[in-house]
Design a protein that fits this description.
Length: about 575
């Protein structure tokens, strides 16, 4: 008997077998059927065990079976829907029975032998989990990610919506022969302390460089799919057989953020997920009748699910400027509404909806190979569940029209885009939740840099490459000597170990020199490491500058931002109206 067929006597929905345990306050799986059902398959018994069981049945044959129980079966009787059991009838004629203890209520709630219920629930739960695992479609991340999210670090999930028209009822939308490009892409960054998150939309028509992509083939071999320069972002998936891992690599090259995992959704995902939660409420600032997306709704609040939800997220010609950026704003409004519904008590306390959501989610999404197990998805869900929707910010990569085109069809990065990327790299919140903490951190770092500074000509420093690109130490040396007059500097080669962050170590009597170099290079207070000096090639004491993996190039500031740039954004708790 498969997991879906479990407990379907009298057409009982498995979702109806989740009941509230009054002792724990949590929903638990109850597999006590209203009519007898086939036993759950178990291990075969030995011959001696079978004889013992037969003897036991013989010894108990003379006992009178309780009402509703089949002879010789130690199975709890079905719950009675009418009438009064004889024992209760005798009590009603006499004195009022004593009030049952909470423990006895729990035993009655389980419907019989606690041991049997626990065994059946455990087996049934295992079967259902295995069923959900079978629903999951996973493909290799080809080493493009971090190896999977961690509970003690910031989380970066790449959410990809494809324009593939597979699935019932989707053939009539747009290009029915699409290979499945990255039509909608969101980099979801969840802060290390889980107090806030940023959902960064990446326009599909953004001009980017797609890198070479090593890709696992069906036979287990690896094929490198050649990269492309100055192409639309959406071609990072589907084009030339590129897989989601290639979109991962493209996002890393674009933003400097390495995704931990990816999730891919097609048209069916929007329809099934919204239906599973009973639909979502969205706002329209005007009547919309879009022939391309098939959306036809009146102005005001509207309840959408299934086909209407898909039409809503596909609409662009009837909102804003009629382009992809306007559609992105609409999709952000939809996702905000979905988040509000998912976090509402209406969903979280409804076991039927939660079961349907688990079914829809595991069937509708394709995930990377690091998320190929329901327990991993559960752990990720628990981390995301810590978020307050008012601290989930939606924003879009800042872009401008492509100046190389006469007919504007694509976009390129705006000057402010690197600031957005750097904020996400440094786990900076785009919501107001951490402004005070950020200010305190900034003040503390600034205090470390206060004081007098040496003249450039007095600064002595040895430069080591501790994880930056090859040649960075020499590049920095040339820049310091030729552009900043720090002539008492030298290239000391590679550091003994790689560092994630650039550091400057100095002795107490070199503090003035350290402040000067920090000012020139844009080093933060956290990069300053009081310690000891080293001897340079001239036999004089010098500081040690170690260029870490965060080094961006000579002249590029290494000061981590303490606040997010001022960009157009919205938070998931706000109801925005499509116009």
């Amino acid at each position: 008997m498969d997991a879906q067929g479990r407990g379907r006597a009298d057409n009982i929905d498995p979702a109806d077998q989740w009941v509230l345990n009054p002792n724990t306050g949590e929903y638990e799986l109850r597999l006590t059927p209203s009519t007898p059902q086939s036993p759950v398959p178990g291990p075969r018994r030995s011959a001696s065990r079978a004889k013992g069981d037969a003897a036991g049945r013989s010894a108990s044959a003379g006992r009178t079976s309780s009402p509703g129980r089949a002879p010789g079966r130690d199975v709890p009787s079905p719950r009675r829907r009418g009438g009064v059991p004889p024992a209760e009838a005798s009590n009603r004629r006499g004195r009022r029975p004593a009030k049952k203890s909470k423990a006895k209520k729990v035993l009655l709630w389980t419907g019989g032998s606690m041991a049997l219920v626990l065994v059946v629930a455990a087996v049934g739960g295992y079967l259902y989990i295995e069923h959900l695992n079978d629903n999951i479609t996973a493909v290799s991340d080809d080493g493009a990610g971090t190896g999977g999210f961690s509970k003690d670090k910031a989380i970066n999930i790449l959410l990809i919506g494809t324009d593939k028209r597979t699935g019932s009822g989707n053939e009539g939308y747009g290009d029915s022969g699409s290979v499945g490009h990255a039509d909608t892409t969101i980099l979801l960054h969840v802060s290390k302390d889980r107090s806030n998150a940023t959902a960064l939309s990446i326009p599909r028509d953004l001009i980017v460089d797609v890198p070479d992509c090593p890709t696992t083939q069906a036979d287990g071999s690896t094929k490198v799919i050649p990269g492309d320069s100055d192409v639309r972002f959406n071609t990072s998936l589907g084009q030339d057989d590129r897989t989601p891992s290639c979109t991962m690599r493209t996002v890393e090259e674009l933003t400097g953020v390495t995704p931990d995992n990816f999730m891919v959704a097609d048209f069916n995902a929007v329809k099934t997920l919204t239906s599973a939660v009973g639909g979502v409420d969205v706002c329209l600032g005007k009547d919309i009748n879009d022939a391309d997306s098939h959306l036809n709704l009146k102005k005001g609040m509207q309840h959408i699910s299934g086909e209407n939800a898909l039409a809503f997220v596909r609409t662009r010609h009837s909102v804003g400027f009629g382009g992809d950026l306007s559609r992105i704003a609409l999709q952000q409004q939809f996702l905000s509404a979905l988040m509000r519904k998912l976090k509402s008590n209406d969903t979280l306390t409804d076991p039927t909806k939660m079961i349907k959501l688990a079914e829809a989610g595991t069937k509708a999404l394709t995930v990377d190979s690091q998320l190929d197990d329901i327990s991993k998805l559960k752990d990720l869900g628990l981390e995301l569940g810590k978020l307050n929707v008012k601290n989930l910010t939606f924003t879009t990569v800042p872009v401008i029209d492509n100046p190389a085109e006469k007919v504007k069809a694509t976009v390129v990065l705006a000057a402010s885009a690197p600031e957005v990327f750097k904020a996400i790299q440094n786990d900076v919140s785009f919501s107001a939740v951490k402004k005070q903490q950020a200010k305190a951190k900034s003040d503390a770092q600034a205090a470390k840099l206060k004081g007098t500074k040496s003249a450039a000509s007095e600064v002595r420093v040895r430069i080591l490459n501790g994880g930056a690109e090859a040649g960075s130490a020499q590049e920095t040396l040339s820049w310091l000597q030729n552009d900043e007059d720090i002539t008492k500097s030298e290239n000391a080669g590679n550091a003994p170990a790689e560092l994630a962050k650039t550091t400057l170590e100095y002795a107490p009597d070199q503090a003035d020199q350290a402040r000067k170099l920090a000012d020139v290079m844009g080093l933060s207070g956290s990069a300053m490491k009081p310690g000891k000096s080293v001897t340079n090639s001239q036999g004089l004491p010098a500081m040690t500058l170690t260029l870490g993996k965060d080094f961006q190039g000579a002249g590029e500031s290494l000061t981590a931002p303490t606040k997010a740039p001022d960009v157009e954004k919205t938070t998931a708790d706000k109801v925005e109206c499509a116009k």
